[in-house]
Structure formats: structure tokens, C-alpha cells
Amino acid sequence: MTKGLPMVNTTDVGGVSIEYPAEGVGLVEINNPPMNMWYLGLAKKMADAMDEVRESGAKVLILASGTPGYFLAHMSLQDSIDIAEGREPTGDFGGMARCGAELRLGPMVSIAVNNGQCWGGGCELFSTANLRVAGESATFGQPEVIMGSMAAGAGTSRIPRVIGEARAMELLLDGRPISARKALHWGFVNRVFPDDTLREETIKWAALIASRPGYTLQAIKRSIGKGLDLASHKEAFANEYQVNRDMIDPHAEENMVLRKAIQERYNEGADSWDAWQIEREVIDWDD
Asked: Of 148-152, 221-225, 258-262, which gets the smallest average pLDDT?
């Protein structure tokens, strides 16, 4: 290897598959076992798959997981560590941006399906979908505050628009995950289905929506998007990025120590609860 050049990252970032389970419905399935870590390279595969579904003429896009117990655990900490230390990550941030833009602003009605853990960047991506469903055992969380960071991939710009300022503050400042029931109570998800019928019920709902005129679905989506002031959202996202940079830059060393400690616990076989050192307690809606 030539001295001075970053090492090529050979991490297996997982795969993505596409199926069309009903008329007008395309389903993109994420598969990166055991935990569906959201690597930058995986994000590009997901974005490419969404492009393919859109080009097929589908009216409804379902984003789901084929890995039991995980939608997307969260964004890969290893990618962020590699970037900070001058090594080649598994991809760039373009794929993540494309995924969020397609779910929120693309012509297809998007439905995100959480079958288990949906934390960090996974939760932020989930929030960009037009409709959101979850299984009864699903959890949602933004644990970034635990490692001296913040949810800067739409967490502070998009999530408050979905659940309101006070609830977004709780989710982002507390760091502990919430249950599917609490997410439903807050309006973060539209529906909660039994775990064993989650996929079936979601496809059934998607097929019903896809039976409506496509031009009407697109018009409703555009109208709601503009009504929420897209320019303001872009400004909020830009502000979120700058605030995150201003926070991280003077504390980069401390942040990296915390980030590496979490990644090391993953490397030793810990699950997310132990890796992030979060008590195994989910905040329920009536707490």
C-alpha cells in the first residue's frame, strides 16, 4: 500500500432487495445482519434501489427490514471514526441525503416500517417518510447525546416538525428509547401492528393507497410539503449542520473517545443497550 494513502474500507455494508408485493407498490428491504447498521455504503444501495422502484412507476414505496428485530440500529459509528482518523469510509453522505429526499419529497408515497430497533440515524431517516408504522415491540431513540454528539441528520430539524418541540426535546435530550405505543401517542407513527403481521398489514395498507389515482397522491404530497414551508425546512437543516460543527470541532477528541468506546463494546459482541450503556428500560407512553 502506498504510504500516505487511506486504507480502503472493505466492511461488508449489507445488501438491499426489491420486490413488488401488490399493484403499484414497491418494497425496498434492508439486509445487513445482525443489527442493520446503517453504513454509508449501504445508504447508497438503498438510494439506488429507491430510484429503481420510482422508475418502475410504483405509486407507493415501502422501506422495510429483512433483519429480525432491527429497522436500522443507527448510523455506523465505524464510518464516522474512519472519517475522523483519515481512513476511507464505506461511502459518502450522498446516499443518506438521497434516501431522505426520496422518502420525504419524491413522487411516491413513502411508508417506513420499524420491526424492532430504530435509533440514531435510522430514527432520523424513519422520520422523513410520509407514513410510518411499527411493530408492537419496536423502539425509537436518539442516543447521540450520550456520546457528546447530537442528531444532526434531521433529528433537530425534522423530528420537531413531526412530534412538536417539547417531545422532540425529550427524545433528543434524554437519550433513552421510547416504545411503539409512546411513538403512536406522540404522533411519530401512524399505526402499530402486531409483530407477526406487521409486513402483511403494511402491504395491505400500501395497496389501498396505491389504488387511488397517482396524480392525486402526488398532488396531496406536494401540497402538504409546500404547506410545511420547504424553504424553512432547508434553512433549519443548514442551521442544524452548522450548530453540530460548532459543537463538535472544539470537543472532537472527547467525542472520539466516547464514540470509540461504544464501537469497541460492539466489537466485543455487545448489543445496542450495552454498547451505549443504556438501562434496559423503554419509556412507555403512560410514564
From this structure: 221-225
How far, in Å, CA of 254 to CA of 241, rounded?
Answer: 19
User: How high is the pLDDT of residue 14?
Assistant: 79
Q: Which of 257, 242, 238, 262 is nearest to 84 (CA)?
A: 257
Burial class (CB in 10 A: 0-12, 13-18, 19+), 105: middle
1-5, 24-28, 42-46: least confident range = 1-5
Answer yes or no: are the C-beta atoms of 174 and 283 closer than 8 Å.
Answer: yes
In the numeric block, which cell numbers belong to residue 73? 440500529
What is the grid cell recorded at 27? 418494497
How confident is residue 243, by pLDDT bands cut at 50, 70 and 90?
A: confident
**209 pLDDT above the threshold of 70:** yes
Alpha carbon distance 10, 155 (integer Å) = 29
Among the CATH numbers 3.10.350.10, 3.90.226.10, 3.30.1140.32, 3.40.1000.20, which is that of 15-196+211-275?
3.90.226.10
Q: So what's the pLDDT on residue 64?
A: 98
Separation between Cα atoms, residue 69 and residue 119, nearest integer Å:
12
**What is the C-alpha to C-alpha distance for residues 99 and 92, in angstroms, rounded to an integer?**
13
- Omega of the bond leading into 6 within 30 degrees of 0 (cis): no
Which strands make up the sheet holding 139-141, listed edge to edge?
69-72, 116-119, 139-141, 178-179
Place of cell 420491526: 115
Burial of 233 (0-12, 13-18, 19+ CB in 10 A): middle
**In the predicted structure, residue 5 carries a pLDDT above the cut 60:** no
